Amino acid sequence: MTILDDKLLPGVKKILTRVGEAASLVEAPSPGDYDPATGHTTSTPTTYNVLMTPPGPYSEAYPTGDVGRAREIITILSKLLLTEGAVPDPTKGMLLTFETKTYQVLAVEDIKGAWQLTVE
Predict the structure, then answer these.
(1) Which of 7, 22, 80, 82 shows its CA 20 to 30 Å from the CA of 97?
(2) pLDDT tens over the chain, length 120 residues
(3) Half-sphere exposure of residue 86, counting CA atoms within 13 Å on the CB side?
């Protein structure tokens, strides 16, 4: 993290603590151990409990004319876990579960102290 991140992170955390919603970010598992008896590998995805802003439609997030598909939404994700640990950088393809819906991460933008995710 940069010095600017260190200065902004407490403010972002304070805002997300006040208005943020609990969600889960799921990191795809890396190939696990190979079991020659079954011919399969074992792997378990890693789930991180995070705070995010309620998602908003892509079209409202970019009123300047950037083109987005109708199902895409934007959310801000805290760089801190609810338990004060670090969250790995989100990447395209990760899953984000909010309330009863699961979204796939399409794009990630680092915005100092948080990430802006485009999900579908």
Answers:
(1) 7
(2) 567 667 776 776 777 778 888 888 888 777 777 778 887 777 778 888 888 887 776 554 444 444 545 567 778 777 665 555 667 788 898 998 888 888 899 888 887 667 888 888
(3) 3
Q: How many residues in total does the chain contain?
A: 120
Lookup: tokens for 43: 């792997």
Domains within the chain, CATH numbers bracketed: 3-30+42-119 (2.40.10)
Query: Residue 13: which residues within 8 A CB-CB, separation 6 or more?
Result: 78, 80, 113
Amino acid present at 117: L
